[in-house]
Amino acid sequence: MLGNLKGLAVTLRTLFRKPVTHQYPNEHKPIEERYMGFPVLTWDEQVGEPYCTGCMVCVRYCPTSCMSAVMKDNPLHADGKSTRRKIVESFEINLGRCIVCGICVDVCNFDAIEMSHEHELSKYARNGNRTNLDKLLEMGKEYQQEVGWVAPKKAEPKEES
Ligand code: SF4
Ligand code: SF4
After folding, report:
1. Which of 51, 56, 58, 72 to mutate to test the pocket of ligand 1 (most atoms within 8 A of CB)?
2. Which of 4, 36, 49, 90 could form a disulfide with 115 if both were Cys (CB 3.0 to 4.6 A apart)?
3. Per-residue pLDDT at 2
């Protein structure tokens, strides 16, 4: 009898408990600050250009070969407005093939790429998540704003003498 009452008490407690489940996709659980979502490119607000120089280091280290980058001479450097002699011209990540390992972030010397909180990019097409420079920068700006991002190393390419 006592056992039955205890069982009933547990049932009643559970009945009035706040649900812990979320009705996805209408409800979203909050993301932890250190959550690692897809990589995005960062924007240098002071100069008005990407941090990325298109150096290709991340491209070479990416274990799934899902990235590509092209570098060009930086017109802002020629005008004396930027210390970056080279700048990214085009950049692509096939986020459908990215395994979110973070190696690209670890090997980048220019704080140009960060693991964002973005994780909901389901597409029907096999290569529907090929993401270009503009989109990666747009996602990066959103992420920078969201977390109040400051370049961790304050890396500025050194002027060559
Ligand atoms: S993200 Fe970093 S490592 Fe990759 S191309 Fe740009 S500057 Fe180089
Ligand atoms: S997180 Fe890993 S798999 Fe994804 S782009 Fe970076 S290096 Fe490649």
Report:
1. 58
2. 36
3. 85
